[in-house]
Amino acid sequence: MTPTSVQLPQSREAAGRLTTLLSEFDPGAADFVEANQAALRPLFGDAGWPDFEKLVQGYAFADAQTRLEQALKGVQGV
Predict the structure, then answer these.
(1) What is the gyration radius of the CA atoms in the chain, in angstroms?
(2) Most buried among 23, 26, 38, 49, using CB within 10 Å?
(3) What's the gap between Cα 73 and its chain centre?
(4) Is residue 39 a contact partner of residue 4, using CB atoms and an 8 Å limit?
(5) Which residues contact 23 (CB under 8 A, 6 or more apart)?
(6) CB-CB neighbours of 75 under 10 Å
């Protein structure tokens, strides 16, 4: 599943806010991921989302930020 052109701006906006939370090691990142799953999930596809979600829920924020950046690079061409 790839983000549609309608979803992409919302996905990028949510990803930008999440990147800030992750870089600040803000525990609120876990709640943000849960609340914004609809916007973020398309960046990862169904296969990558569970692993990303586990990283955030487990407070592995540096690893989660790396995954998020990779996911964003993957959709820039869309």
Answers:
(1) 11
(2) 49
(3) 12
(4) no
(5) 61, 65
(6) 18
Burial of 15 (0-12, 13-18, 19+ CB in 10 A): buried
Per residue in 33-73, pLDDT (tens digit) is 999 999 999 999 889 999 999 999 999 999 999 999 999 99
How far apart, in Å, are the Cα atoms of 57 and each of 36, 45, 73?
14, 18, 23
Backbone angles phi, psi at 4, to 5 degrees: -80, 170
Q: What is the rounded CA–CA span in Å between residue 61 and residue 70?
A: 14
Contacting residues for 62 by C-beta, under 8 A, at least 6 apart: 22
38's tokens:
């609809």
Q: Could you tell me the pTM of the whole model?
A: 0.86
